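Reviewers of the previous submission asked for a worked example of the structure-prediction workflow described in the proposal, so we include one complete record here. The input consisted solely of the amino acid sequence. No template or homolog information was supplied to the procedure at any stage.
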Amino acid sequence: MDVAVWLKKQMISAEAYDVEELLTGFLDEMKKGLTGETSSLAMIPAYVGITGTVTPGKPVAVIDAGGTNLRIGIARFDESGNVELSNFSKQAMPGRDHEISASEFYSVLVDALEPLKDQFENVGFCFSYPATILPDLDGCLLHWTKEIKIPELVGKQLGVGLIAALEARGIMGRQVVILNDTVATLLAGLAQGQQFNASYYIGFILGTGTNTAYVERNENIEKLDTYLDLGSQVINVEAGGFNAFERTLFDLALDARSENPGGHVFEKLISGVYMGSLTLELLKALVDQGCFSNTGASAIRDMRELTTIHIDNLAADNERDTGVLGSDVFTEADHDVMKIVFNAVVDRAALLTAINILAAVVKSGEGKDADSPVCVNIDGSTYYKTFQLADKVQAHLKTMLSARGLHIRCIQVDDAPVVGAAIAGLTAFH
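From that input alone, the workflow returned the following structure tokens.
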């Protein structure tokens, strides 16, 4: 049996997808989201622009509530735009292992901020979960993702809650700006982008989840009641929710078993949390097609999970931990089939990632001049650490952009969510 042909028939292969159809679907959902129509893309205005001025040496408190960890500390920028981070604490994101109350969540934040109270006036709060951002730069949590369990916070304003918790400890007069991690990633690209005359900016994350932020002109955002004084502002696409494409039976099965069936369906095709699980679904189906040795087939039938890290290490032949896949029950031929399957999963993820980025470039209306490309700041461990993923994304983008006469430059900024949150905290209230 030709496994590659089977994968294409199952629509796992990137070759099974029509690029124009995917791009049109993504752009249509973006437009609907901006006009307030029903859309799988939330298109949330961030109420921050890209023209603020950072005061060198001025400290700002930064909170980075990510998918796994919570980091809190102080950031300063020097005259060259380089960031200095100090007094940072790091711990597991509260509410990940068990349900907690809102007051317990805020207590964790204030416990870290209180010793630093004399070093900051403003707080840049990078919040990596779906939230409606309000014109006063506060954020209202829509729902939790990434298995966080703090139900009391859903529908509540995070900045109001944090300021109240600070004031309860006697820390008065602080201001908080809430921004999504992808918006923060976009802002973190400003310093580098200005050096090569970037025309516009995009932030893209592919890690535990996935999302995109880009800059949109205010006149195109019909659902807004309040505009920035500037002509444009950053939009948090909430790209993980995109659903205007055909999913396979394997995608649907994986979605049905997830903790949020029907939600973030695009994310479930490309993010690090899900690629291993999808690969296992495919391997089990190929057992029934007689593609494995007897011992390998038996072992695959017994497998209840497969992490992306283990199958990625196998595909990369990097001599790192492959978990049960390293067992001698699997033959070399078994491993070859596994690699073909995972490579197809990665290639499809790369194509869909490229479509996501391309849609943001097209929607921005910029990038038509090679001397002023769109700056795309890319963050996330899945993008950079998954075997061949980044190279495949760039190959797809090169073809797509060339066909449309568009130009981008992709960059990577260390600690992008923290840097972007610090920039927002220093510039948003001017």
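The first strand starts at residue 44 and ends at 45. We consider this example representative of the routine output the project will generate in years two and three.
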